[in-house]
Write a structure and sequence with these properties.
This protein is an alpha/beta fold. 40% of the residues lie in helices and 13% in strands. It binds uridine-5'-diphosphate.
């Protein structure tokens, strides 16, 4: 919090309603954005869906620090973060992972009515008065609702600027025949402002797929229409990581890179955000040599084909590497709870630990971790860089293909697990695990990721780019409010 961020009248700070997109990879950075803005003097009303609230509270209550209000602990430190929930249009007990299509339909068609009702209530009752609506870029209604209640519209983008830019310039892809061109165009996309030539296979899956009638496509098309009337875009990336892409975007949208948005000090957040009970792996990790453990996780949402999971497991069997593997109960499907090969757990006893969920931040920063086999979700990528852990990339969906390109081709802080768009085999899996984890062959990736960590650290220092960008955002917001 710097001088220039001070608001003219501390009695009337800006009050933002912050609505998190209801998947964990969006809720986690939204929680930390709320804390960051509240530390800058904002009053925040944080809105979670009832479903995410129910799951996180259940996981937290099983692990002893149960809080009905996710922000209670943070508020003890003096921040004004209010907390409320809204229905996403489906019953709390509905299995959103198993019935993803219905979930997305509800977000597209039903959710906005519930949000509108809630925003009306908050606007009517709140002191200080509500000044802005901060909503995830993937929502299809923020500018409509902001306009209706005369609020500023701040869009929160939780992925790299490169991904934003490709969606934003979808019309250029259409014009040049690179839209929905899966497997048919091999030439690079070299005309997106600020984006160096990118192969079509490295674009987000939704831009590649031939069938563009899915509900996810409809959400993306609508969301990127909405974004054109946003007053501000806050992005969880770092100016120095994507300088050209960000500058080019700033010609079109008021785009502020304020990442990495982590819990302060990168310690375990006091706000419980886990969907499943966290296993404590510290003792097991303590028993392992420095940088000897491969951490494996595919994030909170995506499913992995059983055949791929078997190749990974059989590939691990061909190595002698220690590993800690997060296998979510629904990683293949919530109907297949035992996806590993028979006898796998006995075969790796002593060197392999399999758990349903953990505090990833705590695990990654443990000195025993030497590599991260990841689906390349953007939060995982940033957390890995911050922990100086090189990546073994296994992208599965959406922006993960584009993030992989940044990690492997541009920043060289990791390698591919197999052919990024094709099949993986156990032989390839074991070869690449050994390559990343071996002290000699992995050294270049370790040193590259250490350098990149410094860039992130510098961005968060006084006068660092993300701190400055947050100041500019607050300055510009003040001129619009006061
Ligand atoms: N995560 C966690 N424990 C786990 C696995 C994941 O806390 O066992 C967190 C991880 O730290 C990250 C988020 O879940 O913040 C996953 O976000 P990401 O963008 O990497 O992937 P997504 O879940 O959106 O696909």
């Amino acid at each position: 919090f710097t001088e220039s961020m001070a608001f003219p009248n501390p009695q009337h700070p800006p009050h933002a309603i912050l609505i998190a997109y209801p998947t964990l990879g969006h809720v986690i950075p939204s929680v930390h954005l709320a804390i960051k803005l509240a530390s800058c003097g904002f009053v925040i009303t944080f809105v979670n869906t009832q479903s995410i609230h129910h799951q996180t509270s259940k996981a937290a209550s099983n692990s002893s620090h149960h809080k009905d209000d996710l922000f209670a602990a943070v508020r003890d430190s003096g921040l004004d973060i209010r907390y409320t929930t809204v229905s996403d249009g489906l019953p709390v007990a509905f299995d959103r992972s198993l019935h993803h299509e219905e979930f997305m339909q509800s977000l597209l068609h039903v959710f906005s009515a519930h949000v509108e009702e809630l925003v009306a209530k908050i606007v009517k009752e709140s002191v200080p008065p509500v000044t802005c609506l901060i909503a995830d870029t993937f929502f299809v209604w923020p500018s409509m609702i902001a306009k209706k209640f005369d609020l500023l519209h701040v869009s929160f983008w939780t992925e790299p600027a490169l991904v934003f830019s490709l969606y934003y310039h979808m019309d250029l892809l259409r014009k040049n025949g690179h839209f929905a061109c899966q497997d048919t165009r091999k030439d690079s996309v070299d005309y997106i402002p600020g984006v160096k030539a990118i192969h079509p296979k490295d674009m987000m899956s939704y831009l590649q797929e031939k069938d563009i009638s899915t509900v996810c496509h409809q959400i993306i098309f609508k969301a990127f229409k909405e974004i054109r009337s946003a007053d501000f875009v806050l992005c969880n990336s770092i100016q120095e990581l994507e300088p050209h892409t960000i500058s080019a975007l700033q010609a079109h949208v008021p785009f502020f890179a304020v990442g990495p948005i982590f819990p302060s000090g990168f310690i375990k957040s006091t706000v419980p955000t886990s969907l499943w009970l966290e296993s404590d792996c510290t003792q097991w990790l303590d028993s392992k040599p420095h940088a000897s453990v491969l951490y494996i996780s595919f994030g909170s949402t995506v499913h992995v084909a059983k055949s791929d999971l078997l190749e990974i497991a059989n590939g691990l069997l061909l190595t002698h590497v220690n590993f800690l593997w997060v296998l979510r109960p629904d990683v293949v499907s919530s109907e297949d709870q035992h996806p590993l090969p028979d006898g796998f757990e006995e075969a790796v006893r002593g060197r392999g630990m399999i758990i349903p969920w953990c505090s990833q931040i705590e695990v990654l920063t443990h000195p025993a971790i030497g590599g991260f086999l990841s689906h390349c979700g953007w939060n995982s990528t940033l957390e890995s860089i911050w922990s100086e852990v090189p990546l073994l990339c296994f992208p599965l969906l959406t922006d993960q293909f584009t993030n992989r390109k940044l990690v492997v081709d541009d920043w060289r802080i990791g390698i591919n697990l197999g052919d990024p768009c094709g099949m993986i085999s156990k032989e390839e899996v074991s070869k690449n695990i050994n390559r990343l984890m071996d002290e000699k062959s992995g050294a270049e990736f370790k040193s590259a990721v250490r350098e990149m960590k410094k860039i992130l650290e510098n961005a968060l220092m006084t006068n660092g780019s993300s701190v400055k960008n947050m100041e500019y955002f607050v300055r510009d917001l003040k001129t619009k409010i006061f």
